[in-house]
Here is the input.
Amino acid sequence: MADATLGTAPQDVGAIQSSYMAQVQRRWLYSGLALLIFVVLMVSGFNIADDRNAGGFWDGIHQIGDYPADVLSEAWEKRADLPGLIVKYFPALFETINIAAVSTLIGAIGGLFLALLSTRGLARWPRLIPLFRRISDIMRAVPEIVIALVLIFVLGGGPVPAMIAIAIHTAGALGKLFSEVSENADLKPIEGLGSTGARWSQRMLLGVLPQVAPNFVSYALLRFEINIRASAILGFVGAGGIGYELRNAMAWGPGRFDEAAAIFILLFGTIVFFDQLSSHYRNRLTEGQAQ
Here is the structure.
């Protein structure tokens, strides 16, 4: 019996190896076909988009550095005016930061409720979990600029439409992130609070939030960085802030390129500053030390 088993073992190993190699070859074949289809679609899409442009991409690619060169040359010629221009546009920058801060705060609160209402084991109404998840999906699926354009049409230009648009998108995005963190929360404290007669809000406040607060704050700070950039971009569609001033400076063209350069310096410095600041505090919260 032992001899028969030893005699058939090499054949079984060979069959397994042959089957494995066949599966690997099929996987490589399917991956190659998928890559080929992707390349064909990208090339065809590029050609269609290039044909619909007013000018061809390859015809104008040599001019890609002309505009930055004009801005830098004029800013250098008027470099003595840059400090005054930076001071001039600082209130617009402050407005942009306010838009980002308020929208992040409102969005984080909305995302917190969406997360707690759409997490299994924590939801107040378990049957409505799919509903709250779809609401979160829709809120983060629609770009901020689309929401802002609709609100500007209804409310008029200014920072309020930008704040509402960013807050809606932030609530959807943070609702998803907060929900993933909440799913890893230990349910024993919640069950213990429930056994003492604690209400749902008390169980969430005392049993869940202490466990997930560091990650929640970390994600909120990360979103604040993103919202500063988003609020600056929304200024291009009339939503106020430093983006609106940058659009005006760029639209006038030569003669106001020094103002555009000053706004670029302000915006770049602000983004770098808040990126570093929030990264520092996020590392402190999640890892207990600054990196």
